[in-house]
Amino acid sequence: MLYSKIEGTGKPLLILHGFLGMSDNWKTLGTQFAVDFQVHILDLRNHGRSLHSENFSYEIMVQDVVEYCQGHKLENIAIVGHSMGGKVAMLLAISHPELVSKLIVADIGPKFYPQHHQEILEGLNAVDFSLKPSRSDVEEIMSQFISDFGTRQFLMKSLYWQEPGQLAFRFNLAVFNAKMEEIGVPLSENAIFDKPTLFIRGGNSKYILDSDFDTIKHHFPHSSIETIPKAGHWLHAENPAEFYQKVTSFLK
To answer: Signal sequence: where (predicted)?
Structure first.
């Protein structure tokens, strides 16, 4: 079963992180949501402390979440998904509408996305852990490929001591190298979820464009789309207060 952090009581609220992320990224917001909900922050397959597997697709990640809900006897859930986690949440809601009461999708749409993580993957693959680099060594190597400090800090959160003197990434980089095309796949044309749905996008992000609104409404006819100004793709980290307000207002 997937690794998770559970906090609070009440109606279940599941939170799914984005590509190369993990549950720790949502720790602060999870504690805030736990005032009103039983919050389950999951590590998706091949991320964080969850299982590593050669199998990696949205369909299999959805099945992981379904089995997690069955194992914890969760019903009538609300679910928040960011980026890749938003794609998982969308497909879960469409394929198991009886399980999901409300859906919140953060800065990702149902459309196809071309591969755009090449520089990040180059930076990650440039790290040779057999040389037993220090944390500062790892960041220095990545900085040669990844100029954005915030992105590097986000990736460094998945760095851990596998054993004394030996660092490693918690995510399954080898599988991501082999199956990157899986991250960008769209929802099928006839996929529809007709329950309340909220899309939240960052005003400085280009993941959800105005031209995507018709496609979103096709798949999610009872959806609304809101924007957090002056926030990018990591909108929940850049403006957590407004993100929290928009999600809680929608869920109440």
So the answer is: none
Beta bridge partners of 202: 228
Tens-digit pLDDT profile for residues 77-98 = 999 999 999 999 999 999 999 9
Domain that holds residue 104: 4-112+185-251
236 is catalytic: no
pTM for the model stands at 0.96
Which domain CATH number covers 68?
3.40.50.1820
Query: Which letter does DSSP use for residue 184 in this model?
Result: G
130 tagged catalytic:
no
- What CA–CA distances, in Å, run from 116 to 95, 153, 180? 27, 19, 10
- Catalytic residue of the set 4, 50, 83, 158: 83
Q: Mark which of 154, 178, 202 sits at the end of a domain.
A: 178
Domain count, the chain: 2
Whether 31 and 104 share a structural domain: yes
Residue 76 burial (10 A CB sphere; 0-12, 13-18, 19+):
exposed
Say whether both 174 and 189 belong to one domain. no
pLDDT tens digits for range 26-79:
999 999 999 999 999 999 999 999 999 999 999 999 999 999 999 999 999 999
**Which of 40, 47, 219, 233 is labelled catalytic?**
233
